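Observation: inputs received (chain + iron/sulfur cluster).
Thought: call the complex predictor directly.
Action: predict_structure
Action Input:
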Amino acid sequence: MAEKYLGESIKNLGFGLMRLPMKGDEIDMEQTKRMVDAFMAKGFTYFDTAYVYIGGKSEVALKEAVVDRYPRDSFQCATKLPLWDLKDPGEMEKIFQESLDRAGLEYYDFYLLHALSAEREKQADELGAWDFMKKLKAEGRAKHIGFSFHDTAEALEHILQNHPEMEFVQLQINYVDWESESVQSRKCYEVARKYNKSVIIMEPVRGGSLAIMPPQVQEVFKKAEPEMSVASWAIRYAASLDGLITVLSGMSTEEQLNDNVSYMENFQPLNEAERATVQQVVDILNSLPTIPCTACKYCVDGCPQKINIPGIFKTMNDLTLYNNVEGAKRSYENVTKEGGKAGDCVQCGACEAHCPQKIQIIETLKKAAQTFA
Ligand code: SF4
Ligand code: SF4
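Observation:
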């Protein structure tokens, strides 16, 4: 029977390959393979990578852990085309072919323009990226085409009006950002559905921060359902929406994977009482002044001072949430060991343009410098 919408038959948990377990600078392939096996054994089939993830090693890990070990029709995989450094339209074909070669594939099931915004829509126009995507689809080298997105709902609507050929959108959706004015999860989701686009959800656990919660939040969740992990609420919240291809979780350990598959194997959407519990948690979190960093690292490469911006922001957030001053000092030393300190920022602004969360990185680093002086 034909699918009612693209991706309807895919289970609502996808394996994000951006935070794989590492051994030094290399991906821990043995652990990754065990995770893939446990995932596939429970009927999950969707893998998400990108040309830039882990410096290109993520696509190679897809080959070694999935493509070389499972029949091609038993899984779907997605990767993404980064436009931000491209000058010449010919580079798009080169990058796409490299993504195929790294993963040992003849086609990707889902191919995405990576991290579109109003500004990158213009870049996509200049490069002819829309026609390039259509060509890949016509050739069968990309079965479905779409884009991941970080900007306002208005900017999303503009793209969808101009590009009906895009079949799906990948959006950042989680219960903290649902009503956020900077991320606009709800508004973006509603625009996507208005245009009948299927949705892939990214960052349901907000870069892991909705798995590690302050004690007063953990207590609310544990009281409601003692056996369920804190992360499970975030994934189930996202997966309860309609019209999804899948919900991506960037899994880094076997423990995380086993937990995720345990409740997503026979997924049940959140009921009314569970929704009320999530709202209670949102109210608590909104009262705490944390930095909305998802650790995507898009800001890091261009920093002339080699400042580990997401590492510093995580340390600041941990301090806000747990008030562990000694732990935060140690963590700050650790994350600034190999690069610049917060106070080394020269305010060049190279990072802020890349931040999908629109964080005022320079100002926030000033605060961090004062905190850890
Ligand atoms: S503004 Fe500061 S943190 Fe941002 S790229 Fe420049 S030096 Fe790095
Ligand atoms: S500061 Fe922004 S760009 Fe940098 S890691 Fe955090 S969310 Fe990503």
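Thought: report the result.
Final Answer: The CA atoms of residues 60 and 164 lie 32 Å apart. Residues 272-286 form the longest helix (15 residues).
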